[in-house]
Amino acid sequence: MKNKEIHVVGAGLAGSECSFQLAQRGYKVHLYEMRPEKSTPAHKTGQLAEIVCSNSFGSQSPGSAPHQLKWEAEKLNSLILEEAKNHAVPAGQALSVDRERFSEAISKRITSHPNITLHKKLITSIDQIPRPLVIATGPLTDEALAQSLKEHFDGSFLYFFDAIAPIIDTDSINTDIVWKADRYGKGSDDYFNCPLNKEQYFNFIKEVSAAKKIEPKDFEKTPFFEGCMPIEVMVERGPHTLRFGPMKPVGLPNPKTGKDEYAIVQLRQDNKEGTAYNMVGFQTRMSYSEQVRVFRQIPGLENAEFLKLGSIHRNLFLNTPKLLNKDLSSKKDPWLFFAGQITGVEGYFESTSMGLLVAHFIDQKLSDRSFLPPYRETALGSLLEAITDETKIKHFQPTNINFGLLPNIEGFRDKKLKKEAQIQKAQNHFNSWISTHQMI
After folding, report:
1. CA 111 to chain centre
2. How far is CA 408 from CA 72, 179, 377, 412, in A?
3. What is the pLDDT of residues 225-266, one digit of tens each?
4. Range of 158-162, 315-319, 350-354 with top mean pLDDT
5. What whole-number distance in Å separates Cα of residue 72 and Cα of residue 67?
6. pTM (2 decimals)?
7. Rounded to an integer, what distance in angstroms lies between the CA atom of residue 204 and that of residue 215?
8. Is the peptide bond before 139 cis (omega within 30 degrees of 0)?
9. Which strands, in side-by-side order, build the sheet including 179-180?
10. How distant is the alpha carbon of residue 271 from its chain centre?
11. Per DSSP, which regions of 207-302 are E strands?
């Protein structure tokens, strides 16, 4: 079966990871990517694994749920994680990457692999491609292919919208006002912090509320994912919402006064050279001209030059508990698999992890082995359970990895000790899964 040909549509994070893992196992992989033949409103290049929203792969702080997911993926020799670390930029406790160098590295690894054939070709129907087939086209799936999938699933689709945060030229940031620090002093002073007093904060809220927005068709019927909420939607929930979200001021005292400000806007390094910074948590659907006007009212950004302004684009995901099996194959076609954000995970590395798992599941199936997913106690197992749990069919929505997904452990009153116990249990069970089933 090692000469078996496997087809993967979509060369983003999940598709690239899945293709690489299968190729490493000796399978002949045909990887299809529509760019640059056809692009999307969010993509700018024809490179593989281009990242278009934040450049952060989430926390790598030991003891956190995102770190545990990376710990497990590293044990499985994740290509995406390896290159993310190779092209990391300073970001405190987060793993953030230089977008261009990261995508270039992934493109090189994929195109140079002897078992992978890359086809720069638009796929408009699942009937065009033989099985086994993996659909890893992500949230910006081509409309024709999306229609083909919709027909396959008898119209059972879910949609939501995602928003991209602006990126600023570092030289245009006023360093007489802003300062570099990480929250609670953790990290190596990687973030710029823009301070707002009470009057400035409420004036900012007023301007955001009054700014012109770009509304897509049927917008009111389409929910946003809670983890990527546009700032104006947060403002609509109440004037203090931003102060408890992306503008949270705690743990970042102003070095000039030694006191916390009323609100803080953080900027995170976006490339290796440090010439660009993105506005953390400032996804938006304001018009371009309004973004420039409103964001320049933030202290320290009076003369900000925007390398990229925020935008909104359609995202797509399946009702996975209803439509897919536990191995992420279609309930109507056991050799049609899905990987990445389209399965209902949210976050770059969560999407990558689904590509990693699908490669294992396909290998198990083609090798006539029993379906053996990572144990429920692991981060990978918990994330898989979260998106395939059939009790969530009626209220399914995308999810990041978090401690709420890991099995609860009774008998702990101290939250920190409880989390440590969950992590230790996850690592023990993951090592057992690898050892028992010889997954590496």
Report:
1. 23
2. 19, 40, 9, 10
3. 666 788 999 999 999 999 999 999 999 999 999 999 999 999
4. 350-354
5. 9
6. 0.80
7. 21
8. no
9. 179-180, 192-196, 263-269, 276-279, 167-169, 306-308
10. 17
11. 263-269, 276-279
Residue 122 carries which DSSP code? -
Q: Which two tokens stand for residue 63?
A: 């003891």
Task: Tell me the C-alpha distance between 334 and 329, whole Å.
Answer: 5
Q: Classify 300 in phi/psi space as left (phi over 0), alpha (psi -120 to 50) or beta.
A: left
- In the chain, how long is the greatest CA-to-CA distance? 67
How do 56-59 and 94-97 pair as beta strands?
antiparallel
Beta bridge partners of 163: 312
Planar angle of CA 34, 35, 39, nearest 5 degrees: 105
Please, what's the b/e burial string for 36-49 (b: 16 or more CB within 10 A of its CB; e: otherwise)? Answer: eeeebebbeebbbb
Residues making up the chain, counted from first to last = 440
Domains and CATH numbers, the chain: 5-157+318-437 (3.50.50.60), 163-314 (2.40.30.260)
**Other C-beta atoms lying within 10 Å of the C-beta of residue 411:** 7
